[in-house]
From TrEMBL:
Pfam families: AAA_29 (PF13555). It comes from hydrothermal vent metagenome. This is FIG007317: Chromosome segregation protein SMC-like.
């Protein structure tokens, strides 16, 4: 794997205005670190990206794993049906990537001369597992949130485990040294302020509540802006990705009924006076 660099803004760049610096550092939940274990070609150990809550630039040569890390972060925040894997690279083969291929570590194709077909080569098998973990910290509120997902096979069925914790977790400390997945679940449930989910929807609702993300559209917008290159029609973009859907007809009908009720009440009062 080619070298990859994470460049974070230095505090000195913000010291020109201490008030601005303070506001920036205290504002919202910011990513402290991202950990991946057995994800794509990040294989066999815990790989860690540490932006330390600063605005950061991820750079590196082609094939160094930039899109793989971006996809890991997207996986933690965006539901699979809306997620755009590998779109950040601008590659044509983004559809070849999914959670299963990342978990198994697909890295290339090899020609089978006997069957005259190409077979995908993998770094891992169905007895392995993968973990994604992101730790966020809100300095202003002094609150921690860790999001984690575990991918594994059970009886040849691909499964996922979702974790939300109000404490600092790490892959090495909290997602290792277990014999079976049921042991991991039991191990996790003993940690205070931690919830384990089987479905993304419940996991999503929990972390959005903890982090103060009121609208699901926020994650949709984040997903779109990860690799945005241009906005053709700004109005359409705002309508599709930023505004909540509103049933105007239903609201008008409700308004009409309420108005009629108020009008009848008013007429009854006037009639009673005379």
């Amino acid at each position: 794997m080619s070298p990859m660099t994470i460049v974070s803004e230095e505090n000195d760049l913000l010291n020109k205005d201490k008030n601005i610096s303070k506001r920036l550092k205290l504002s919202g939940f910011r990513l402290e670190d991202l950990e991946v274990f057995n994800w794509g070609t990040f294989h066999g150990k815990v790989w860690k990206m540490e932006p330390h809550r600063a605005t950061s630039l991820l750079c590196g040569a082609n094939g160094s794993g930039k899109s793989t890390l971006v996809d890991a972060f997207l996986t933690l925040l965006v539901p699979s049906q809306k997620r755009n894997y590998n779109v950040a690279s601008g590659g044509e083969k983004k559809r070849e990537r999914d959670e299963k291929s990342y978990m198994l570590g697909a890295y290339g194709k090899k020609r089978d001369e006997e069957q005259n077909i190409s077979k995908i080569e993998y770094l891992r098998g169905k007895n392995d597992y993968s973990v994604l973990l992101a730790y966020f910290y809100n300095e202003n509120l002094d609150k921690e949130v860790t999001l984690a997902q575990v991918f594994y096979f059970q009886n040849d069925v691909f499964r996922r485990l979702y974790v939300v914790a109000e404490t600092h977790l790490t892959v090495q400390k909290d997602f290792s040294d277990f014999a079976h997945m049921k042991d991991l679940k039991k191990q996790l449930k003993q940690i205070p302020l931690l919830d384990v989910f089987e479905q993304f929807g419940e996991y999503n609702a929990r972390f959005r509540k903890l982090m103060g993300i009121r609208s699901e559209k926020a994650m949709d917008l984040f997903n779109q802006t990860v690799a945005i290159k241009e906005i053709g029609n700004l109005n359409d973009f705002i309508r599709k990705h930023m505004l909540e859907k509103v049933d105007a007809i239903e609201r008008m009908n409700t308004l009409r009924v309420n108005f009629n009720n108020l009008d009848k009440a008013h007429q009854a009062i006037v009639k009673a006076k005379h």
